[in-house]
Design goal:
The protein contains 7 helices and 5 strands; from the N terminus they run αααααββαβαββ. With 195 residues, it is an alpha+beta fold.
Length: 195
């Protein structure tokens, strides 16, 4: 932020903002207007805060490139910062080489507060372009509850079928929620016998 406000340091203002929004995660999801309305923030500090959260999420994602995904939790740990900060549903594709190493992470679609628009063509376009051997899909539930909806289950089945037709293995479909006691909440279709 650069500075606090009269009588309050930048650290103090940061602590006040976390308390106001309820958590660091909720602060990261706040819109620019919401941040700017906070006492001592304004539009400039709001933009700095939003940029800091975006850079942190992107940095965490870049750490994933070249790494091997061996279990769902590996992907959850790296995708969590980006997906948990999104106030709307977002679908990401983690593109993998033949050894399970990450080639790229691509945003496939961004939806509304409680739904994401999915189409197989868009979901596999990036996998084809990067010549991916396999793909792991992940999306968030802004509500914090990673339990799959009937639509999530249907989409996961469609992803699986599309991958089979294209010869691109779908290794998993993850749904990320919030966190409890520092542990990221997620649902893995692979762990539950799905994708």
């Amino acid at each position: 932020m650069g500075s606090g406000r009269r009588g309050l340091s930048a650290v103090g203002l940061g602590e006040e903002l976390i308390e106001r929004f309820g958590s660091l995660q909720a602060l990261g999801r706040a819109s620019l207007p919401e941040l700017a309305r906070c006492k001592g923030v304004g539009p400039t500090k709001a933009a700095r805060l939003a940029a800091a959260f975006a850079l942190g999420a992107r940095s965490a994602q870049e750490e994933l490139l070249g790494r091997k995904i061996e279990r769902p939790k590996d992907a959850v740990e790296f995708l969590g910062p980006r997906l948990r900060l999104s106030p709307v549903e977002m679908l990401l594709a983690v593109l993998l080489d033949a050894k399970g190493r990450v080639l790229a992470v691509e945003e496939i679609t961004r939806g509304t507060l409680n739904e994401s628009l999915y189409h197989s063509r868009e979901a596999f376009r990036a996998a084809i372009a990067h010549k991916a051997h396999s793909v792991l899909f992940a999306h968030n539930h802004p509500s914090g509850d990673p339990t799959p909806s009937a639509e999530d289950i249907a989409i996961s089945r469609r992803m699986q079928r599309a991958g089979e037709i294209l010869g691109i293995e779908v290794v998993d479909h993850l749904i990320l929620g919030g966190s409890r006691r520092g542990e990221l909440l997620y649902y893995s279709f692979r762990e539950r016998g799905g994708a």
